[in-house]
Design goal:
2 domains, alpha+beta, 5 strands
Length: 111
């Protein structure tokens, strides 16, 4: 079995080693290509390969979001919003765009 994932101008090939080599050879005859080797980072995902399979994480992306909003030193909590929080609280003292950007970044990590 061979699985081909295409995103814009990036290809990810996974499956049987012989099929991967054959596919790469076939594609190289038609297109200019560069083999970047094993996948390590793609679309905000960190990928570690081991004998038992793959481990996928968004740790780097999560750290970047925390640093972007100066939250890298914050303590983790079970509930991200305090009790009684209102939507209006998001814009008091800060721009609404800043809060929406923070929430959007966190939603990409956990959503």
């Amino acid at each position: 079995m061979l699985i081909i994932v295409l995103y814009v101008d990036d290809l990810i090939l996974t499956g049987d080693d012989l099929l991967i080599l054959s596919c790469k050879d076939d594609l190289a005859t038609e297109f200019e290509m560069k083999d970047l080797g094993l996948l390590h980072y793609f679309l905000g995902l960190e990928i570690w390969q081991c004998s038992g399979g793959l481990f996928v994480s968004q740790g780097k992306y999560a750290r970047e979001i925390l640093e972007k909003f100066n939250m890298h030193g914050c303590k983790p909590v079970d509930t991200p919003l305090p009790r009684g929080w209102r939507k209006e609280d998001a814009t008091s003292g800060r721009s609404g765009c800043h809060c929406l950007s923070t929430v959007g970044g966190v939603a990409n990590v956990f959503g």
